[in-house]
TrEMBL record, chain A:
InterPro entries: DUF742, WH-like_DNA-bd_sf. Pfam families: DUF742 (PF05331). This is DUF742 domain-containing protein. It comes from the Bacteria.
Length: 118, 466
């Protein structure tokens, strides 16, 4: 028996979100990282939410990655994530900021020091 | 002498009178006989006239009406005509008329079905196309306002597609969509997607049963029709409860509504339609036509599942039970090869190699921490486990997925490959099939094409369940 692939067109997004289009909170970005909390029971979640939490248990994933894995639209994923944050199943974290560029003055000093030492 | 003459005359006259008397008597007898005969003929004629009138006014309309029901046809008006040639001819006329009526009805039914089927298939195709564009739009736009409108359009489109599909099935078409084997829960939720009041449906399930690929679409359609009936015939503030239960040799989908229920006559009609044994006349489904049960009946008979609606729900309405025999089921375990991560490279490019290769459930928190998941675009992996070579990538698809060309034993390959032996001929590279397997496959192919041609559900051949 081949393992079933999720049929994309079978369960429509309005059933997944219960007809809602707006996430309960507007804090999600494509690169927001979501992390699952381990101590929450999964029994009351719908299948997509359960898969989402199981997916995130491995570590932090961005919203875009979660949507890609679940084969759901990003906006639908955000609705699900909003519910899961409300129920405490996942926590979010702002994306890791780009490393601050060192100041040019510092670089200049390092360069000068290197030149001096040569 | 004169006396002698007068005596002769007397005797002559007497004889003449006698003859005249005899003749008169005979004449009278003949006349009476003729009159009687005439009267009898007249009665008979009137009886036949009456009989002809009876034929036109009673027997032929009855034959016309009886159509599909097998009511006893009204017989002769006058019992005396039984057994005569006249009665036989009348009987012949009635039978020919009934035959002609039936033939005309069949032809009309077939024509109606063919026309409906063709137009519904066109609509189905359009609904499907539209669904694809809606899905694409949902993917493309990350905006709740757009999503809200798209969800409404999507919902309407799904219902529209289901209607077209049900009518097409009723007219002898196939359900039309090939789907992969899917968990029963997804099948029921897929059915929920296609009804108006999907928010009222509550599905309770903790089963890991999946429906085999060929039965997914028909079961979705059947469950959708049942759910639609349940939701339509109950108050808008009540819930429609769906329970999925494993059974001894199959699985059950139990649908309870808290509606008005059905009376005995309706149950009888529903049971008759759901059995799928009776051919359905599209012109006799009422106004507005009720396609649901008839379509379910056809699907049930064709794919071998079973639907009953004759139980009363504990909530007061109808309990509909759809029983799926184990032939139509397959088992899916959630810890099989991951269906999400490994099988298809996701559309989002930034996935770590560890996450892409390992099934999601095996990842431990230590293995893939936040740093592992940091946005580091991995090389496009193609899921290949062949020991004899790396994947050869030739360009990429429009969606950015790598394309592979079917591998052939290239002539230059033998020299570059590390294996000293000459490359195997292609026939030996493929695992050799046994004769039985080949025969089985050919048989399956032949059965498939045959059942594909015979879309009439009444045909015995073809897709009859094991």
């Amino acid at each position: 028996m081949t393992p079933p692939r999720r049929e994309r067109g079978l369960v429509r997004p309005y059933v997944v979100t219960g007809g809602r289009a707006y996430p309960t909170r507007n804090t999600f970005d494509l690169v927001t990282l979501v992390i699952a909390q381990h101590d929450r029971p999964l029994s009351e979640l719908n299948p997509e939410q359960r898969r989402l939490v199981e997916l995130c248990r491995g570590g932090a994933l961005s919203v875009a990655e979660v949507a890609g894995h679940l084969e759901l639209a990003v906006s639908v994923t955000k609705v699900l994530l909003g519910d899961l944050v409300d129920s405490g199943h996942i926590v979010t974290r702002a994306p890791i900021p780009k490393a601050q560029l060192p100041e040019s003055q510092l670089l200049q000093e390092v360069l000068d020091g290197l030149r001096a030492s040569l | 002498m004169t006396q002698h003459i007068s005596e002769v005359v007397f005797w002559c006259v007497a004889a003449a009178l006698l003859i005249v008397a005899v003749l008169l008597l005979r004449q009278r007898q003949i006349t009476t006989g003729l009159r009687k005969h005439n009267a009898a003929l007249e009665t008979s004629l009137r009886a036949r006239d009456e009989e002809a009138r009876h034929l036109v006014e009673v027997r032929l309309p009855a034959a016309e009406d009886s159509g599909h029901q097998s009511l006893p046809a009204p017989g002769l008006l006058d019992e005396q005509l039984t057994g005569t040639a006249y009665a036989w001819h009348l009987q012949q006329a009635t039978e020919q008329f009934a035959g002609a009526v039936e033939k005309a009805q069949t032809r009309a039914d077939q024509a109606a079905k063919a026309a409906l089927k063709a137009s519904m298939r066109a609509l189905q195709g359009l609904a499907h196309e539209q669904q694809l564009s809606i899905s694409r739009m949902q993917d493309r736009h990350d905006n709740p306002d757009v999503l809200r409108d798209l969800l409404e359009i999507d919902h309407a489109n799904s219902q529209f597609g289901r209607r077209a599909q049900a009518i097409a099935v009723l007219c002898g078409s196939w359900p039309g969509r090939q789907r992969a084997a899917s968990p029963l829960l997804d099948v029921v939720r897929g059915a929920t997607s296609r009804i108006r009041d999907y928010r009222r449906v509550r599905v309770h399930a903790q089963v890991d049963i999946a429906v085999a690929s060929r039965a997914v679409e028909p079961v979705v359609l059947a469950v959708a029709e049942l759910l639609d009936n349940a939701a339509r015939h109950s108050q808008p503030n009540t819930a429609v409860e769906v329970n999925l239960q494993p059974a001894h040799n199959g699985a059950c989908v139990v649908i309870d509504d808290a509606g008005v229920g059905m009376d005995g006559q309706e149950i009888e009609r529903a049971t008759r339609l759901l059995s799928g044994r009776q051919s359905v006349d599209v012109s006799r489904l009422g106004d507005p036509p009720q396609f649901g049960f008839a379509a379910i009946g056809i699907l049930a008979a064709r794919y071998g599942f079973n639907v009953s609606v004759d139980t009363r729900s504990p909530y007061g309405g109808v309990r509909a039970v759809l029983f799926l025999p184990s032939v139509l089921l397959t088992h899916v375990t959630e810890d099989g090869p991951s269906t999400v991560a490994a099988a298809t490279p996701p559309a989002v490019p930034s996935i770590t190699t560890a996450a892409g290769a390992a099934p999601t459930h095996t990842r431990t928190p230590t293995q893939a921490g936040p740093q592992a998941a940091a946005a580091r675009p991995a090389a496009p992996r193609t899921p290949t486990d062949h020991e004899d070579g790396e994947p050869v990538i030739h360009g990429s698809t429009a969606g950015g997925l790598p394309k592979r060309r079917r591998r052939q034993p290239a002539p230059g390959r033998a020299t570059t490959a590390a294996t000293p032996a000459a490359p195997l001929p292609p026939a030996e590279q493929a695992p050799a099939r046994t004769a039985e397997e080949t025969a089985r496959r050919m048989g399956a192919f032949a059965r498939g094409t045959r059942s594909g041609r015979a879309t009439n559900p009444n045909d015995e051949e073809g897709n009859s369940p094991a």
